[in-house]
Write a structure and sequence with these properties.
The chain is α/β, with parallel strands linked by helices and about 270 residues long. The chain has 13 helices and five strands. It folds into two domains: about 160 residues, P-loop containing nucleotide triphosphate hydrolases (Rossmann fold), CATH 3.40.50.300; about 90 residues, no CATH class. It has a five-stranded parallel sheet, with helices on one face.
Length: about 270
């Protein structure tokens, strides 16, 4: 998948490494679905590349050395990934403890903690100990949509890198290039810079448009449609999805109130 957005920040990461100003524990924060995990994987590839010391090495590594070849097949032992949202605490603790037992064959090792805010107390405490006393030649990259949910002690010990939502055109390009789909202006605008969210909106576009238009009418004083609207929502089986769409539309009203009439036209 071709990576887009936040080019300046991604280059700054590489520059920080070259200038020996990079911390061993990095916190990648930003809106959900904007590509923080992809940025983490890209930078991990850069750190692990055997030719990283050379000039003009791309952000994702040279693509030709032994390590880069292993990374392409997801078989590089120096890249460890922890999926905090899906893995149980014991597995996470075991993964962390193994870092101290295994010798690193390459110059560096990178451990990515995806969705780090989902770490439970015991897993978070294990991570904190590793950050305080990291294994030799090991970098930690934590990605999260809400840094406030992390332990304050973890946040304070990480070098913070905040990634911005993507531009509308970048969202369109990502979806078009990787999925051969042309997203509607409505989905792109409502996603507010999140390609992942734009895809979700495309899957349920008619439902979201209906919710958006109804909420807009209610906000303009049409309270006669509230009861029928609620009855309609109650009939939908996937309640969690409906709640998420309601929250999404509501938050968009708050953030983009000046654009509502324009978005309304796209939703028609």
């Amino acid at each position: 998948m071709k990576i887009k957005g936040n080019v300046y920040l991604r280059k700054q990461l590489a520059q920080a490494f070259k200038n020996k100003a990079l911390g061993h524990s990095l916190l990648f924060s930003g809106k959900e679905g904007i590509g923080k995990y992809l940025y983490a994987k890209e930078f991990a590839s850069y750190l692990l590349c055997e030719n990283v010391a050379e000039e003009n090495i791309p952000l994702g590594g040279c693509g030709e050395c032994r390590v880069c070849a292993l990374l392409k097949t997801n078989s590089c032992p120096e890249l460890v990934e922890v999926f905090c949202k899906e893995e149980n605490t014991e597995k996470i603790k075991t993964t962390i403890s193994e870092l101290y037992k295994e010798k690193v064959a390459a110059k560096r090792r990178v451990v990515i903690f995806r969705d780090a805010e989902y770490l439970r107390v015991q897993g978070a405490n294990s991570l904190l100990k590793s950050i305080e006393e990291p294994p030799k030649n090991t970098f930690f990259i934590l990605t999260c949509a809400n840094a406030e949910l992390l332990l304050p002690t973890i946040r304070s010990r990480c070098q913070k890198w905040h990634f911005n939502p993507l531009q509308d055109e970048e969202v369109k390009e990502i979806i078009k290039e990787n999925l051969n789909l042309l997203p509607s202006q409505f989905a792109v605008k409502l996603s507010a810079g999140s390609p992942a969210l734009a895809l979700l909106l495309l899957e349920e576009e008619e439902l979201v448009k209906d919710i958006f238009n109804t909420l807009l009418k209610i906000s303009q004083g049409d309270d006669q449609i509230i009861a029928p609207f609620l009855n309609q929502l109650l009939k939908i089986e996937e309640k969690e999805k409906v709640i998420n769409f309601l929250l999404l539309c509501g938050s968009y009203f708050l953030e983009k109130s000046t654009d509502l009439n324009l978005v309304y036209k796209w939703a028609l």
